[in-house]
Fold:
Amino acid sequence: MTAEPMTKAQAERIAAALERMAPPPQPTPDFSTAEAFVWHVTPDRLEPVARVNRIDLSLLVGVERTRETLLANTRQFAAGLPANNALLWGARGMGKSSIVKAVHAAIRAEGFDLKLVELQREDLPSVGRLLNALRGSEARFILFCDDLSFGHDDEHYKSLKAVLDGGIEGRPENVVFYATSNRRHLMPRDMIENERSSAINPSEAVEEKVSMSDRFGLWLGFHPCSQDEYLAMIDGYCAAYGVGVDADTLRAEAIEWQATRGARSGRVAWQFFVDLAGRKGVTLG
Structure:
């Protein structure tokens, strides 16, 4: 039995019904309302951030060379000059995300209207739509993804190519991508080894995943801090927020704090300082 061909009127009714079912197009964001935004999906939208959670760039101790490298790259980008995407990788709690937010603030303080847009790792498949929302703006954007990494059977890394390579359109000229990760190659070592042992062509399978980090022009490494750097961080926080305490007492308490944590990092230094400020009745707002 042969089906009757669809008439023009039927096709028009189906098209109209599908159009009614489709979500309305999202309005173009007003980027003048804030300096930072968070990308959300379902529905797609850029939510302005009233106040960015960050500390001053000068308080980031032990990462001076990395700090200056990222600052210079960001300044070039904000001025409309060529700049690289950056991967900040390494030890946990050593200020990878803090330095991105602090550099953004420092560049804005120099008079550049630079925006920060945060993209969650799980929303990477929507990055093409986000880039389209940013592409048409006259503003310039740091697209920031914190704690970027990929696990077994995770295909999200393929979406990242849209940011780093941009396909035939290329990455928007007004967007640079900064990511942080505990892994230099973004993939766990056992995942890479599994590819070597199970793939039909092991070298190609591994290369596809490992080469993802090669697409970042800047690799900035973060390494565990020394005890002197750890104490210098705390001294800097005390000076910046006006927390007065005897030097010997401060040193003893700070060392005891990191010993109970079994780790020494910028995050541990800040956590100790928050506790200290609370005990001294000093607000950090």
About this structure: The chain has two domains: 31-222, 227-280. The two ends are 76 Å apart (CA to CA). Residues 86 and 261 are 30 Å apart (CA to CA). DSSP finds ten helices and seven strands in the chain.
